[in-house]
Amino acid sequence: MISTPAGTEITPPTAPFTIAVIGGTGPQGKGLGYRFARGGHTVVFGSRSAEKGEAVAEEVAARLDGVAGAGTVSGAANADAAAQADVVLLAVPWDGHDELVASLPLAGKVVISCVNPLGFDKRGAYGLVVDAGEGSAAETAQRLAPEAVVVGAFHNVSAVTLWEHDGFLDEDILVVGDSVAAKGVAIELCASVNGRQGIDAGKLRLARQLEPWTAVLISINRKYKIHSSIKITGFDH
Amino acid sequence: MISTPAGTEITPPTAPFTIAVIGGTGPQGKGLGYRFARGGHTVVFGSRSAEKGEAVAEEVAARLDGVAGAGTVSGAANADAAAQADVVLLAVPWDGHDELVASLPLAGKVVISCVNPLGFDKRGAYGLVVDAGEGSAAETAQRLAPEAVVVGAFHNVSAVTLWEHDGFLDEDILVVGDSVAAKGVAIELCASVNGRQGIDAGKLRLARQLEPWTAVLISINRKYKIHSSIKITGFDH
User: Is A132 in the B-facing interface, judged by CB distances under 8 Å?
Assistant: First the structure.
């Protein structure tokens, strides 16, 4: 059982999962939802309106047509999507994040945040300071949804590569969280993206590092005209 | 010419460099200094006492005995080491960093900070908040030495691997800074460590991301019993 900060307990969901992608019409949400469905999970694309969620679901379904073992996809309004799922992926902009998360029925669910609080100015991308440096989007979501269990993952995956490439991605995916069982859900989902399990990178507070790291990758992308991500070295020695 | 925040100008040094390693007796400083000397640069290992710096220099010199093209190494008290060098590597603990940096003759020099402000508690390693999230060790050094130009690099290199392995490291090294010419010095120095140039990861403020990223790697190291670092993917597509 997974204990939540509110003291409630959640039975860890087992694969294949039913995953609501909140913000499923954005590039990160659409790309990850596509990959999860391709990996055999059921995916509900959430959006502000059910119609927009359904439109993305149709686009993804067309892309998955004929892919053996693919899961089913559908669309719904964000809150309805969350209500149907055992795993909820938050793939929403940081601007408006708190209000949206507070409006969702997240109690009893495993919530994965890939939200990156970033700013942009004439010097490029940078990490926004959350709670005077003592917080992150993932920790904020956990505070707003104390009867859910929140993990952080998929922050640094290139949205372009998720959608435009068919093969598994080369990069590593880091997962942080305070519940090993909840991290296990995200770690297993990683296999739909890169063909191997995600890396357990520690406690939820390390989302403070994973989220703004995306600013570094954006900076590298602009300089070198690539779609960068990261790999962790040292596993083969 | 490199313009400093104080409005002075620095002529970019040319390789081979004379590099002072401040904190040269620590594992990161010793390992990087060894690699730089192996790569043909002159290295002065600085320490609180000249004797300790000299002892490390002797240890490194013994290691380099017979290595073709290696630079010369020596030891000195930190301030004396800085005074002799055109490039100064700050490889000191965050605790006491400000007082030490303020005491060094850094005007007119290219300064490379690999300082990681980290904390450790029973939940593992975490990034310390610098200037309420709006600062970093590298930016602090730049503020303390306005007639120097500071870049950040070598934050995430494993000290163990630097010293214990002889071959080039597999990982990528990220360099941040507000002066392209100063970054070029660090980027060139990377070749002594991994056999290729470092990656220009953007402006100095992104040191806020590179420095605490080391907490993520430490967390991975503890979980998987490895010496991890990072590679940037996307360069080959």
Answer: yes
Looking at A52-66, A223-237, B56-70, B99-113, which range is the least confident one?
A223-237
Residue A182 sits in a domain whose CATH number is 3.40.50.720
pLDDT value at B39 more than 90 = yes
Is the confidence metric ipTM above 0.90 for this complex?
yes
What residues in chain A have per-residue pLDDT under 50?
237
Per-residue model confidence (pLDDT) at position A23: 96
| B121 at A interface, C-beta within 8 A | no
**A18-38 pLDDT, tens per residue?**
999 999 999 999 999 999 999
Which residues 44-73 in chain B show a CB within 8 A of chain A? Answer: none
Q: What range does the domain containing A98 cover?
A: 2-224
Per-residue pLDDT averaged across B75-101, rounded? 98
**C-beta of residue B182 within 8 angstroms of C-beta of residue B87:** no
Q: Are the beta carbons of B171 and B230 closer than 8 angstroms?
A: yes
Helix ranges, chain B (H): 27-38, 50-64, 78-84, 97-102, 137-144, 159-164, 180-194, 207-224
Whether B181 and B2 have beta carbons less than 8 Å apart is answered as: yes
Q: Do B232 and A233 touch (CB under 8 A)?
A: no
Nearest CA among A116, A127, A117, A186 for reference residue A151: A186
For residue B237, tell me if it sits in a domain.
Answer: no
Which of B122, B170, B219 to substitute to test the interface with A, most A CBs within 10 Å?
B219
The answer to whether position A37 is within a domain reads yes
In a domain, A230, yes or no: no
Q: Give A191-212 pLDDT, tens digit per residue.
A: 999 999 999 999 999 999 999 9
Work out how many domains chain B is built from and give that number: 1
Across the interface, whether the CB atoms of A226 and B208 are under 8 A apart is answered no
Residue A234 domain flag:
no
DSSP character string of A223-236: HHTS--EEEEE-S-
